[in-house]
From TrEMBL:
Gene3D superfamilies: Amidase signature (AS) domain, Tetratricopeptide repeat domain
Transmembrane stretches, start-end: 6-25
Renumbered ranges of TPR repeats: 469-502, 537-570
Keywords of the record: Membrane, TPR repeat, Transmembrane, Transmembrane helix
Signal peptide: none
Domain of life (superkingdom): Eukaryota
SMART domains referenced in this protein's UniProt entry, alphabetically: TPR (SM00028)
Full protein name: Chloroplast Toc64-2
Taxonomic source organism: Physcomitrium patens
GO molecular function: hydrolase activity, acting on carbon-nitrogen (but not peptide) bonds, in linear amides
Length: 585
């Protein structure tokens, strides 16, 4: 939350202010309400111009609402860059970023500013000063960053779309983690004027939406695209080696896309490629970088490409922000402080080499994607890490993620992250890339393919959920045999979460609860099981046992009697009825 001084300075500028023909109807500091999942810093309204009178067509974004990452200038507001010291040492913006203005001019209403990672130097979505926006799709996992609030605001249905920025992955990653669409445009396609720079060789203005129609409408407004006929992909390349980097089963991600392509375009357009091998062959300067950083062991081409991107990003970040960092000495979270320090320590001796690698990669990858080609690869290598993890896993995740994310970063290609079902009840995503300047083509492709991809993803997700639930049940059975009843309950709970309509899962968990003398929980599980399967003898027996221990003898007797009716030779039911007969006399 901004400090009182920062808010006061913003208020002082806002009084009586109109913004380039738009008007601020109201300005309110965000309350502590959970209604926006912690995405918003504060609310305001920038109203679009009045709609044209009939018979003129309405404005293209009329009726839509959006909010912007706190990296965009909005006249009268301090652009906070995710850090309170930055906000305290900068004045309110005097001009609104063109990307924001063009959306309001197109009919959309801007309703507020959104949280982000400090200095845009993270893909986690966590901020030690302002908190972490809650991922609506997976509340116990990170939302992704640095455009964390932008993704969460859309995923939580607070706005129809939102603006973020993507330098190394800050739109694509949170889109994947929150289960929504996220578009990184071709580098240079949208003005970054009025946007705080991170590293200008890679900075782009990106956007989020829940549906492909809105994604396309916003894209047309931002990119100022003239009308042209839509085109179908002539070739769809599946980056096989990139999917091998992913820990998510390929069938659940790329399988949905492959089946969709076959349905929509036919098998003949599908081809497979080892993208790393292609890059190694066609970006010769990577060999020189490998010599400089290798200890003798070979380094993969995608890792080398990622390293080149990170080195150039550090250098440009240093050039942009060194003076402020050394003067303001901001309090940064430990992981971001380490990256900032690495940038400040960066020497210029490798800059010309990594710029050459960028130029070679840009030519090679765009040449690969000529003639209406789409490249398919994972957006990220795994589901989002859980909140608060500080061990080695996030560092490993970050490295593998940037192996993938660097492809469009170093090539300048446009890329869209598309949700494709779930894995372990967490969103998964796939990315489609097109050559630089083919943003309309990519937006049209998503609009056409999205419904089929979702249909195929749902089928795969349903099949996986059933298999995963059975696996969780078997783990529960194994733990039960080992008399680790708490662990068994945990596994059975996982199974229920993946398939809540399976009576066996409730029955098994009830048995584990009985072993722990948790009779009320056991009774509830058996009641749920009987709601799903009225002929479950085990459910009647276990609920009867729970009720007997709770002192509900008549109800227990009824359960055991029903079990005996369903299975007349059941010894447990007979013995229980004989025992209860004495208690009920």
């Amino acid at each position: 939350m901004p400090s009182d001084a920062v808010v006061a300075r913003s208020i002082g500028v806002l009084l009586g202010l109109g913004i380039a023909g738009f008007f601020i109807l109201r300005r309110t500091l965000k309350s502590s309400s959970k209604k926006d999942n912690g995405a918003f810093i504060y609310y305001f309204e920038l109203l679009p111009p009045p709609p044209p009178p009939p018979p003129s067509a309405p404005l293209p974004l009329s009726g839509l609402t959006f909010a912007v990452k706190d990296i965009f200038d909005v006249e009268g507001f301090i652009t906070g860059f995710g850090n309170p010291v930055w906000a305290e040492t900068h004045e309110p913006a005097t001009v609104t970023a063109p990307a924001v203005k063009v959306l309001v001019e197109a009919g959309a209403k801007c309703v507020g500013k959104l949280h982000m990672d400090e200095l845009a130097y993270s893909i986690n979505g966590e901020n030690k000063h302002y908190g972490t926006p809650v991922n609506p799709a997976a509340p116990n996992r990170i939302p992704g960053g640095s455009s964390s609030g932008s993704a969460v605001a859309v995923a939580a249905n607070c706005v129809d779309f939102s603006l973020g920025t993507d330098t190394g992955g800050s739109v694509r990653v949170p889109a994947a983690f929150c289960g929504i669409l996220g578009f990184r445009p071709s580098h240079g396609a949208i003005s970054v004027s009025g946007v705080l720079p991170m590293a200008q060789s890679f900075d782009t203005v990106g956007w989020f939406a829940k549906d492909p129609k809105t994604l396309r409408q916003v894209g047309h407004a931002l990119l100022q695209l003239p009308y042209s006929d839509s085109k179908q992909p002539r070739r769809v390349l599946i980056a096989d080696d990139c999917f091998k980097l992913s820990l998510i089963p390929n069938e659940d991600v790329v399988g949905a896309v492959i089946r969709s392509v076959q349905k929509l375009l036919g098998r003949q357009v599908l081809q497979y490629i080892n993208l790393g091998d292609f890059i190694r062959r066609n970006v010769p300067s990577l060999k020189e970088l490998e010599k400089e950083i290798s200890n003798g062991s070979p380094i993969g081409a995608l890792t080398l490409l990622r390293t080149a991107m990170q080195l150039l990003q550090r250098w440009e970040f240093k050039e942009n922000h060194q003076e402020w960092l050394e003067n303001a000495k901001p309090d940064l979270s430990s992981d971001i402080a380490a990256r900032v320090q690495a940038a400040l320590d960066m020497k210029g001796d490798q800059v010309s080499l990594v710029q050459q690698i960028r130029n070679e990669a840009r030519f090679a990858i765009n040449d690969l994607l000529k003639n209406d080609t789409i490249l398919v690869m994972p957006t990220v290598p795994d589901i989002p890490p859980k909140l608060g993890i500080k061990a080695d896993f996030p560092d490993e995740f970050r490295a593998r993620a940037f192996d993938l994310l660097s492809v469009s970063g170093m090539s300048g290609c446009c890329q869209v992250s598309v949700p494709v079902g779930e894995y372990n009840n967490v969103p998964t995503a796939v990315s489609l890339l097109a050559k630089r300047g083919s943003d309309r083509f990519l937006l049209d492709t998503v609009l056409t393919a999205y419904p089929t991809i979702q249909e195929e993803a749902k089928g795969a997700s349903d099949r996986f959920s059933a298999e995963a639930a059975e696996m969780a049940k078997e783990k529960g059975n194994a733990s039960f045999k080992e008399k680790d009843y708490k662990k068994a309950i945990s596994h059975y709970t996982d199974a229920i979460r993946m398939d809540e309509n399976n009576a066996t899962f409730y029955n098994n968990r009830a048995m584990a609860y009985l072993q722990l003398c948790s009779f009320q929980e056991a009774e509830a599980d058996c009641t749920k099981a009987l709601g799903l399967d009225k002929k479950s003898v085990k459910a009647y027996l276990r609920r009867g046992t729970a009720r007997e221990f709770l002192g509900y003898y008549k109800e227990a007797n009824d359960d055991f009697r029903q079990a005996q009716i369903l299975e007349p030779t059941n010894k447990t039911a007979s013995e229980a009825l004989a025992r209860l007969k004495k208690l009920l006399i």
